[in-house]
Amino acid sequence: MKAVICTKYGPPEVLQLQEVAKPVPSDNEILVKVSATTVTAGESLVRRFAVPLSYWLLARLAIGWSKPRKAILGMVAAGEVEAVGNSVTRFQRGDQVFAYDITRFRTYAEYTCLPENSAIALKPSAVTYEEAAAIPYGGITALHFLKQGKIEAGQHVLIYGASGSVGTFAVQLAKHFGARVTGVCSTSNVALVKSLGADQVIDYTQEDWTRRGETYDVLFDAVGKTSFPDCLKVLKKEGVYLQPLAAPALSLRMRLAGVTSSKTLIGGEATPKTEDLIFLKELVEAGKIKPVIDRRYPLEQIVEAHRYVDQGHKKGDVVITVQQSNHI
C-alpha cells in the first residue's frame, strides 16, 4: 500500500510517499481503508520536533531520537472497515467510520489498524469522508475544554483563534451550549466566524481586544498565541481560562496564578473519547454544527499540505484525500 513516511525531523520535504506492507489487524483491532485524513498542527509539530527546550530529552526518548519512531504520521482517519479482529464486537466489515487516535498515528496511509477501544465511531450520515475527517481533531479538543470549563448557558465566552480547526468548533459548540460568543480572528476570517454563529467578531489586526472594557466568563485561547497576563485581566473574578497548547512555562504560571486567584485555569491535552465522537456525530447530523475545510490535497501532495499548515493561518481543517470513494 501507499503511505507517507517521515524520514527524519525537519521541513515538509522529509515526508516521502513510499510502498509499505499493508497492516493486518490483531484480535482487538479493525482494519480501515482510509479515504481521508487531515494535517493537524500536532503532526506538524512532531515532524519538525518543535517541542519546548525543557521537554527536549524526554520528547526525543518518547517520540524518536533522529526521526519519529512511528514513521507514518497522522492521527485522524475516515474510511471503511475492511476487516475486523477476532475479538472485535463494535464494528463489522463495511462500516463507515471516523476516528482520532493520538497514540498510534499511521493514518497517512491507504490502510490503518486501530484498536476497537480507541476513539472510533460510525461517521455522520450525509457527510463525505473528507468532511468526517475534519471533525475529530478540532471537535474533540473544543468539546473537551469547554466541558472541563463547565460552560453554561448565558455565559460570555471569548474564543481567540476562532477561525482555526479548534476555534471553529469552539464557536459552534459554545453557541450550542447557550453561551454568548465573541470570536477573535484576522480580517479575512471575520465573515467565516460570523457564519458559524458568533454574536460578535473582533478583528485583532484592527482592534486590541484586551482594551474593549469587556470581561468574560470563559476565555478559550484555541491557538496559544495570547498574552497570559492580558487574558487574566479580561477574565471575570470567577472566570475560566482554557489553553490546549500550554507549554511547561505557561503551565507553571497557570498553576501559580490558580493558587492566588479565584479564576479557573485549565491547560493540557484533550483525550479522545468515543462518546465525544458520537456526541459530535449527532450534532452534525442534526445540523447544529458543521466541519470547516480550508483546503484539500491528495496524498501525493502531503508536502504541500504540510507547507501550508506550517504557515499557521489555515481556516478550519486541511484535508488529505487518501483514496477516492463512491460513498457519502
- Distance, first to last CA: 23 Å
* CATH level 1 class label of the largest domain: Alpha Beta
Fraction in beta strands: 25-35%
Order of helices and strands: EEEHHEEEEHHEHEHEEHEHEHEHE
Write down how many β-strands occur, each being a DSSP E stretch of 2 or more residues.
15
Task: Please state the overall shape, judged from the principal axes of the Cα atoms.
Answer: globular
Average pLDDT score: 92
Overall structural domain count? 2
Low-confidence stretches: none
Pfam family, one: ADH_N
Domain Enoyl reductase (ER): 10-320
GO molecular function: oxidoreductase activity
Protein name: NADPH:quinone reductase
What would you note in describing this structure?
The chain is an alpha/beta fold. Helices cover 28% and strands 27% of the residues. The chain folds into two domains: 2-135 and 291-321, Alpha-Beta Complex (Quinone Oxidoreductase, Chain A, domain 1), CATH 3.90.180.10; 138-267, NAD(P)-binding Rossmann-like Domain (Rossmann fold, 3-Layer(aba) Sandwich). It has ten helices and 15 strands. Strands 3, 4, 5, 6, 7, 14 and 15 form a seven-stranded mixed beta sheet that branches. A six-stranded parallel beta sheet has the order 10-9-8-11-12-13, sandwiched between helices. A two-stranded antiparallel ribbon has the order 1-2. Helix 4 (136-148) packs across helix 5 (165-176). It is globular. It starts with a strand and ends in a 7-residue tail after the last strand. 45% of the residues are buried. Residues 10-320 form the Enoyl reductase (ER) domain. This is NADPH:quinone reductase.
